[in-house]
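Recall that a protein's primary structure is simply its ordered list of amino acids. Everything else, from secondary elements to tertiary packing, is in principle encoded there. The following example makes that idea concrete.
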Amino acid sequence: MTESIYRDLLIDGNDIVLDDGKNPVIITDQVVIAQDIKHAILESGLAVQLVAERSPTEISDVEYQIILLAEHDIRIIPGTGKITMIDDKRLLTARTYEFKEINTWL
């Protein structure tokens, strides 16, 4: 088994996720990166702008800003971020340097 590079607690909403034994769930590597990026998007206010926007042009602009924010993370390969609509939900994908692709729902 390989050693993890990144480790963190799993957060759902604003709560730490606990396992059946009431211990915090530990996540590693690309899951940590995806969670960090999701939190950065939420903290930036871009997710709220995306939900509030109705203009297709403005939606595209906010999506582009989200991709740029994700690609600003030093663990993400610039130019690999993409947002895809799946069943009326947006999925952000990007490639990392150390791992394969990360995915996070917006």
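The chain is about 40% helix and 25% strand. Strands lie at 7-9, 11-12, 15-16, 26-28, 82-86, 89-95, 101-105.
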